[in-house]
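We were asked to recover a plausible sequence for a given structure. The inputs and outputs are reproduced exactly as logged, with field labels preserved.

PROBLEM: sequence recovery
POSITIONS: 296
GIVEN STRUCTURE:
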């Protein structure tokens, strides 16, 4: 197993408190989303929809926390090189549609990490015994989400301001996907067959409410400073809190193309129980953020 990840057995602990009702949060989010097109249609017919597609890349230079599968807790302390060594695939993009003060925002994110470790063991009781065993351990961790939020421009500076700036608020729902699975295979050379196999952990999915805030100030005709934050979870589906904060800037090349860059902080605190024990994912990450935005 990677030296940055050391498994240790821990006593199984109960998750404090009960999950808060999700229906109330989702109902509020859906009402907000449903109001967007209705309100937009009532606006000046001369206003046109504007769209943007923004693929982005998040490079976590530090990942710290714990991963728990079947009551077995693993400490995580990974740098960027550790993450890249075990990275299979990563994909993320944001889509936005806006008309005047109202809009819709969709965010899609997916990352897959895996490790495959093997070891040859000698019996501890009698090392001279001509007997060996091979232990293979496969670790598969995947995380993803798809969120849909309604946008509302709560404030916009007057036309002609020296440094134009605006504030956007958002609210909606997010569907989450989390897989933590450990597959082991123990084979002893004197016994034929595939060996002793065991699979721990699995996949969890859940819905949760999410709210967001962002502000930007134009310091020049081509450069905008940006602060963005979103918070979700609130106990829904086992996710006590999931949050992200981005501090960055946008460099516009023209009306359609722009480069976005900055520094992103992200955290999640999720826990539930499965048939084989406690299943939890509690991590904090931070690192550079890079994105390309195409507008039309």
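RECOVERED SEQUENCE:
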């Amino acid at each position: 197993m990677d030296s940055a990840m050391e498994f240790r057995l821990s006593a199984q602990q109960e998750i404090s408190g009960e999950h808060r009702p999700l229906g109330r949060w989702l109902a509020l989010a859906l009402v907000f989303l449903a109001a967007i097109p209705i309100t937009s249609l009532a606006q000046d017919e001369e206003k046109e929809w504007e769209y943007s597609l923004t693929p982005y890349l998040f490079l976590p230079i530090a990942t710290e926390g714990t991963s728990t599968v079947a009551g077995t807790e693993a400490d995580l302390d990974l740098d960027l090189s550790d993450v890249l060594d075990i990275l299979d695939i990563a994909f993320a993009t944001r889509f936005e549609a806006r008309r005047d003060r109202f809009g819709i925002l969709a965010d899609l994110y997916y990352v897959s990490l895996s490790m495959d470790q093997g070891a040859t063991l000698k019996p501890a009781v009698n090392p001279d015994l001509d007997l060996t065993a091979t232990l293979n351990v496969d670790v598969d961790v995947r995380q993803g989400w798809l969120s849909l939020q309604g946008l509302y421009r709560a404030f916009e500076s007057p036309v002609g301001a020296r440094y134009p700036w605006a504030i956007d608020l958002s609210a909606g729902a997010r569907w989450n996907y989390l897989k933590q699975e450990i597959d082991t295979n123990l084979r002893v050379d004197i016994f034929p067959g595939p060996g002793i196999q065991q699979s721990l952990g699995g996949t969890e999915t859940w819905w949760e409410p999410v709210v967001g805030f962002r502000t930007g100030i134009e310091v020049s005709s081509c450069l905008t400073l940006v602060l963005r934050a979103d918070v979700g979870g609130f106990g829904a589906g086992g996710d006590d809190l999931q949050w992200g904060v981005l501090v960055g800037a946008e460099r516009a090349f023209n009306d359609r193309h722009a480069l976005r860059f900055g520094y992103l902080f992200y955290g999640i605190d999720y826990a539930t129980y499965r048939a084989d024990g406690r299943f939890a994912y509690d991590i904090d990450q931070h690192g550079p953020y890079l994105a390309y935005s195409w507008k039309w």
